[in-house]
């Protein structure tokens, strides 16, 4: 029997999920010096995960990694199986038997809950839904956001909240040449949103925006940032945080907030208000959202460990539309252990574990491994770590040849699954780019799976 990882006996790896961590794991395996054949499974017919359907349309530079993923996608030992849902069309056990190793890079597909009364009132949505909607994700394209309300609240102060705030406050002119979904641009053109309140439970020093994203909110064509300078007073622990050389982003963010606090009166037609030390305790309304009840917080704890504690002081704010932007969360997958508290697959350096036991041949990377943190590039180092663990385990793998996708196509055919290859995706890609040309957009995405399949 030839050694595993050679031309005669290639290492066969399944990757579940086609976002950044899946492609970076593929890249690391191809660079490993072993002969590796990769089958990448994706539930949508189209690849690239959050780079396609999470990154904001007005941030095209952040989508540049797609060029690398596309190169990887056309490598001979890479095989794409789009439109295949692991956990429904194929089981984890089937993959385990068909490959030497399986890497799960399926991201964090749902969102955290606020856990307050009225959270599900009409008019209260998750940022995940809104982001999916304006990016043309098939799961969210039929959502109907009522943009007739002048006042909008966004709960959370991370980069997703910044994205939502920008999309709500930009003019059609600023968005029309991006790859924003057509239905979203049409709805935003009719939007009556004027006052956007971005609400953080902790202080300005703890806001999670990266500084570039925050500054952008002060440079919009038709929206002024508004901040009450009194809310920028910092407690001693926060000053320690800002003086820490390893925490330059927070110091820059506070500088940015301060510069807005001293700007003159607003002149533009929309306003983005930043509030700190406030947590929603209830959403109210007769049938639909009308008011949000906020409790004033104080910070409690040592520097870098400060948490928000309610003071009992409550205030109400009118608001007809609300987006909860408080972080994503991974979903369990039948056949794998799940850490319900963290919303990840329990793992040690990317090896999936059940209690103290490593589950042989099963790995994870990206948000389903470490939780929803970091930027796109963070997933590269994360996937390299997982692939290193996998390569260290190589000697323990069964050395007999594994069939890979060839053994799975008949099963998928029997289930009437129309598997989308990478060549198929490139046809869909070309058709989207063509559709965009007439409107001077980089692409006009297909937002229904049936439309994507119809191209083929
Ligand atoms: P995030 O950065 O973790 O921010 C979540 C925000 O929600 C924080 O302000 C957090 O406050 C708050 N929060 C959490 N639970 C809350 C609760 N129960 N009540 C009130 N507030 C609550 O998450 P994200 O914005 O979803 O972003 C996810 C990741 O994607 C981040 O790493 C982000 O940088 C990245 N991303 C990057 C870009 C970009 O590079 N342009 C764009 C989008 C996303 P606490 O700090 O108090 O927990």
Describe the overall structure.
- This protein is of the alpha/beta class and 456 residues long.
- It has 2 domains: 11-109 and 329-420, Rossmann fold, CATH 3.40.50.720; 113-326, 3-Layer(bba) Sandwich (FAD/NAD(P)-binding domain).
- Helix content is 30%, strand content 21%.
- It has 16 helices and 18 strands.
- A 7-stranded mixed β-sheet has the order 3-2-1-4-18-17-16, sandwiched between helices.
- Helix 1 packs across helix 3 (65-73) and helix 1 packs across helix 13.
- The protein binds NADP nicotinamide-adenine-dinucleotide phosphate.
- NADP nicotinamide-adenine-dinucleotide phosphate is lined by residues 59, 62, 112, 114, 155-161, 163, 200-202, 206, 208, 210, 213, 279, 325-328, 372-375.
- The site of NADP nicotinamide-adenine-dinucleotide phosphate has 28 residues, from helix 6.
Distance between the termini: 41 Å
Number of separate domains = 2
Just name the CATH architecture of the largest domain: 3-Layer(bba) Sandwich
Oligomer: single chain
Protein structure class: alpha/beta
**What's the total count of β strands?**
18
């Amino acid at each position: 029997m030839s050694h595993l990882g050679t031309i005669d006996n290639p290492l066969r790896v399944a990757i579940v999920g086609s976002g950044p961590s899946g492609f970076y794991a593929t890249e690391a395996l191809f660079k490993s010096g072993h002969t590796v054949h990769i089958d990448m499974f994706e539930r949508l017919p189209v690849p690239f995960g959050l780079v396609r359907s999470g990154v904001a349309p007005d941030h095209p530079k952040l989508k540049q990694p797609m060029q690398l993923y596309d190169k990887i996608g056309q490598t001979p030992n890479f095989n794409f199986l789009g439109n295949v849902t692991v956990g429904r069309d194929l089981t984890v056990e089937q993959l385990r038997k068909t490959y030497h190793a399986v890497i799960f890079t399926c991201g964090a597909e749902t969102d955290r809950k606020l856990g307050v009364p009225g959270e599900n009132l009409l008019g209260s949505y998750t940022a995940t839904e809104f982001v999916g909607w304006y990016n043309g994700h098939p799961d969210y394209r039929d959502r109907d956001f009522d943009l007739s309300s002048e006042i909008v609240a966004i709960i959370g102060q991370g980069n997703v909240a910044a994205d939502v705030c920008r999309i709500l406050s930009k003019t059609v002119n600023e968005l029309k040449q991006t790859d924003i979904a057509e239905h979203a641009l049409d709805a935003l053109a009719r939007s009556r949103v004027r006052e956007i309140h971005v609400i953080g439970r902790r202080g300005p020093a703890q806001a999670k925006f990266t500084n570039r994203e925050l500054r952008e909110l002060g440079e919009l064509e038709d929206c002024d940032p508004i901040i009450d300078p009194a809310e920028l007073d910092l407690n001693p622990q926060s000053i320690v945080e800002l003086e820490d050389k390893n925490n330059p982003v927070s110091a820059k963010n506070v500088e940015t907030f301060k510069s807005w606090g001293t700007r003159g009166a607003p002149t533009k037609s929309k306003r983005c208000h930043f509030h700190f030390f406030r947590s929603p305790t209830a959403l109210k309304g007769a049938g639909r959202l009308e008011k949000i009840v906020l409790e004033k917080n104080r910070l409690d704890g040592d520097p870098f460990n400060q948490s928000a504690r309610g003071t009992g002081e409550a205030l109400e704010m009118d608001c007809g539309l609300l987006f909860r932007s408080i972080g994503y969360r991974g979903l369990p997958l039948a056949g794998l252990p799940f850490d319900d508290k963290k919303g990840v697959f329990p793992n040690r350096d990317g090896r999936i574990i059940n209690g103290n036991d490593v589950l042989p041949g099963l790995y994870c990377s990206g948000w389903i491994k470490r939780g929803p943190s970091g930027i796109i590039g963070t997933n590269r180092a994360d996937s390299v770590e997982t692939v290193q663990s996998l390569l260290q385990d190589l000697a323990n793998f069964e050395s007999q040849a594994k069939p890979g996708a060839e053994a799975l196509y008949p099963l998928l055919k029997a289930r009437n699954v129309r598997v989308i290859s990478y060549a198929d995706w490139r046809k869909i890609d070309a058709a989207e780019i063509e559709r965009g040309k007439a409107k001077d957009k980089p692409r006009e995405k297909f937002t229904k799976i049936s439309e994507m399949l119809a191209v083929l």
